[in-house]
Amino acid sequence: MTIGLDTRLREVLGKKTVEALSEGLGLDTVGDLLGHYPFRYAQRGERTDLGALQIGEDVTVTAQVRAAVQKSFVPKGRGRGSRPGGKPRDLLEVIVADEAGRSLTLTFFNQAWRAKELVAGRWGLFAGKVAQFRGRLQLNSPQYQLLAEDAADPSSAIEEFAGTLIPVYPATAEIPTWNIAKAIHTVLDMVPAPPDPLPRSLRERLSLLGYGTALRQIHRPDSHEALGAAKKRLKWQEALVMQAVLVRRKAAAAGETATAYARGGALPEAFDARLPFTLTEGQRQVGEEIAAELAGDHPMHRLLQGDVGSGKTLVALRAMLQVVAHGGQAALLAPTEVLAAQHHRSIVEMLGDLARGGELGAPPEATRVALLTGSATAAQRRTVLDEVKTNTAGIVIGTHALLYDGVDFADLGFVVVDEQHRFGVEQRDALRAKADRPPHTLVMTATPIPRTVAMTVYGDLETSRLTELPAGRTPIATHVVPYTDQRWMTRTWNRVREEVAAGRQAYVVCPRVGGEDAEDNGAGDKRPPLAVVDVIEQLRGGPLSGLRLGLLHGRLDTDEKDRVMRAYAAGDLDVLVATTVIEVGVNVPNATAMVVLDAERFGISQLHQLRGRVGRGAHPGLCLLVSEAPEGSSSRERLDAVASTTDGFALAELDLEQRREGDVLGAAQSGVKSHVKLLSLLKDADIIEAARAEATALIGADPELKGEPGLAHLVDDLASDRGEFLEKG
């Protein structure tokens, strides 16, 4: 039988191993397994730092046995009034340590025979969940694999770990790293050199290893140099395939024909004449770019980045009015019902009587703005569907409900996708498919995107940036508050009361909902994250007693969420205690203060977005990041960075440095299939840029890649599931 990358693992490996690889890691073919790269390499003489282990995490550590002690104990009885009894049990405690002398305890119950294997001086790989007992870190009944060393019996070594560099794989409890290594070793010896998907000319010009050689060296490296060459080759493959997908998609869009919507018109001119402020230079320039593309006969595909409060919605609305003025319809897709309702309210308010199309006394150029969400009643849905189908509603705002069958547009010409990171490409395309001709598309994000991320994830879109804040936006002061210092906490709540006393409003943000929340339990001896349902009661009976408090989180039904937001926006509530459901889009100009509890549990970009909810009116904003993170810790450094600047683009670059790459490009090291496993947006920007140029040249000369069938196969494979690949939120 000929073994290839598409061969099912069940044809070459044992049933138990195949089931563990499939169920635990999603690996079903030879190609899947060989694409499951080590996430690190242990090296003899360069051991794991046991001081960096975190309670509750699953780890595989390389360490040396220092001592093994056998104990005997009688189990305690269970239940009230019970007495100790039963047979004594044996406990084997094995102390292992790293080079710095930091130790870890391994515990084995009724397995005294392991003392014959785990003798002092032996090195091994030990896998399990980190726990703590009486202040000591330990692994209970860990799996392990001993390594052969000069002082030990070499017959116990396994060939997979005979080299200097020991591959450590993303693993599960059912299949530890050494079993994965053994399976990969078996497959490597059975598979002939696979066809190379990279063009020969590219490999020769860049001195890249062949595909088969790179696969062998990534799993069984002969040296650091060989490993580096293998990584470079495989990174190039990831980057080129990804960029080819984006370049081909962009080229295909450029060949489509769209409806052209001329500049100007009674509706946009009437709206601009009513604006009570002057557009920023950035809003004007980006507006000109978009207006010109809407007037063209090829569909616009543009990404609009704007920092918190830069006025993206206004730019999008002016573009929508250009389309509506010439008979087309515009749809705005929002990720949550709260944000969709917020957009609907703000756009209706900005338009005034221009949003009363068909009503008595409305200007003749007016249109209607419809809202469709999943929780709409049957009667509301019928009304909206009729307005959409008859073109009575020129602007339609909604959530995923817009994508459902039965939502039929009369003439959809423009699609605006807000907070694209919450959607996959296939959702964007599902809405575009409701148009008779390819519509123009504007993708908006309030999360500033580092250049390499934009090039890699949004490379099929032209990019615009809004960096200025509109006139009238006030500065936001941000401070880190130590949760354990009662004086600071007293002052924090007093500041909230001072803002309310001055006629203004505040937010209190918590990491989770509470109640039946699955996250209620903390890890190890850590307390669980603070929850809004608990905090609001503590504030009502304590530091914020007497104030009007409201509760908002994602588990409330839509009517309740809308009622709370309307009450807060109207000033009927002083303080809104909420989860991150307020992270984007919520606009209450009278809100000036925000207290973020357990701030260390949020990411940099998330904190920046939350902070953007205050300081949106005439008064300065204040954001207090309450945290238990100690001085000098990485969590505290992250909070200090947020406090030091309001430049979202600078924070986005810092966020990329500190986050796992998998958070940006898919689950790179988590044991889940991903097309991007080695490529680092931070470290490999040069490869990404060069691959973009190579992909542009390849697609330009051969759009279907008929001359490179191996590359075409990988590109088609990635393109087919790129929607899932882009699901990041």
Automatic annotation (TrEMBL):
InterPro entries: DEAD/DEAH_box_helicase_dom (IPR011545), Helicase_ATP-bd (IPR014001), Helicase_C-like (IPR001650), NA-bd_OB-fold (IPR012340), P-loop_NTPase (IPR027417), RecG/Mfd (IPR047112), RecG_dom3_C (IPR045562), RecG_wedge (IPR033454). Residues 488-657 form the Helicase C-terminal domain. One of its GO terms (molecular function) is hydrolase activity. Keywords: ATP-binding, DNA damage, DNA repair, DNA-binding, Helicase, Hydrolase, Nucleotide-binding. Pfam families: DEAD, Helicase_C, RecG_dom3_C, RecG_wedge. PROSITE patterns: HELICASE_ATP_BIND_1, HELICASE_CTER. Residues 293-466 form the Helicase ATP-binding domain. PANTHER family: ATP-DEPENDENT DNA HELICASE HOMOLOG RECG, CHLOROPLASTIC. This is Probable DNA 3'-5' helicase RecG. It comes from Glycomyces tritici. The lineage of its organism: Bacteria, Bacillati, Actinomycetota, Actinomycetes, Glycomycetales.
